[in-house]
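Hi V.,

Quick status before I head out on leave. The structure for the redesign project is tokenized and pasted below; the design run finished overnight.
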């Protein structure tokens, strides 16, 4: 294993990550693992993501458009640990580009269920374990993945997705105030245009190239560009006085 720039900062820490099978979530999982964390992961919907995962990682799959599968993940985590030092709510997607006049109830519900309700329910379900960790050692952390589209509204057909990310952004700030007396910090990472399956699905090569030209750093981001900020925000030694913040990782876009 490549040595981590974070050393063994997360040795004996329990880290829970959703959407960790691919893309940004997988890069975050690998980075926490390299820094010594015990990891309990939701990989996404596909068990094929488990291929080549380190043996020590406990994982399950599940479709978070279903409340029952959100609860199944909460139950799974609780069956493996009494304390959680870090919760990363990262699972999310757009599902497609849906014009406002033809958006179906099912599309609307799926987007909100995955990107918004799952974050609230999983956070609520695992708060007792976060409290237990903060009580024991102080300073547990939640890091939520939001999006630049929470600021801009996104591009056509993504208004509901963008609104759910804005919800999670504001939810993170509110929760940060509420949980501060319990020494649980809450922050969010807001990726810009990151080259993962996400855009392979929803954006044409022409659209991505046009976007790239607008990015001050003149390139799309990568999952590896995003992962260190999750670890930074999760580590009290590095960010113990930071809570209620949204960190934009977007090459300088506004
Ligand atoms: N890539 C970007 O430019 C970008 C920009 C801003 C924000 N984000 C956010 O960053 C996070 C990670 O995205 P990514 O770029 O890494 O995309 P990705 O490679 O598509 O990964 C998304 C993860 O979420 C999981 N997921 C999707 N639908 C799900 C469902 N119905 N139930 C449970 N899990 C589901 C995926 O699993 P399956 O593959 O099995 O569905 C996967 O593990 C998401 O919250 C996304 O909204 C990405």
């Amino acid at each position: 294993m490549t040595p981590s720039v974070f050393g063994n900062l997360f040795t004996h820490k329990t880290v829970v990550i959703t959407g960790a099978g691919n893309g940004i979530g997988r890069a975050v999982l690998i980075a926490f693992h390299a820094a010594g964390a015990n990891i309990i992961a939701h990989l996404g919907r596909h068990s094929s993501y488990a291929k080549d995962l380190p043996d020590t990682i406990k994982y399950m799959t599940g479709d978070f458009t279903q409340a029952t599968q959100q609860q199944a993940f909460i139950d799974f985590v609780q069956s493996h640990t009494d304390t959680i030092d870090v919760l990363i709510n990262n699972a999310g997607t757009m599902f497609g580009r849906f014009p406002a006049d033809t958006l179906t109830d099912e599309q609307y519900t799926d987007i909100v269920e995955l990107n918004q309700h799952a974050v609230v329910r999983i956070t609520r379900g695992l708060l007792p374990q976060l409290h237990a960790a903060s009580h024991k050692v102080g300073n547990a952390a939640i890091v939520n993945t939001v999006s630049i589209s929470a600021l801009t509204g996104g591009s056509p057909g993504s208004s509901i997705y963008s609104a759910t990310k804005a919800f999670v952004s504001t939810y993170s700030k509110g929760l940060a105030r509420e949980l501060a007396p319990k020494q649980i910090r809450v922050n969010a990472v807001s990726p810009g245009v990151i080259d993962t399956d996400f855009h392979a699905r929803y954006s044409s090569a022409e659209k991505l190239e046009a976007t790239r030209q607008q990015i001050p750093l003149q390139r799309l981001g990568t999952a590896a560009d995003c992962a260190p900020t999750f670890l930074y925000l999760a580590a009290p030694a590095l960010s113990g006085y930071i809570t209620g913040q949204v960190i934009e990782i977007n090459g300088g876009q506004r």
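Above is the designed sequence. Residues 74 and 126 are 7 Å apart (CA to CA).

G. will cover questions while I'm gone.

Best,
W.
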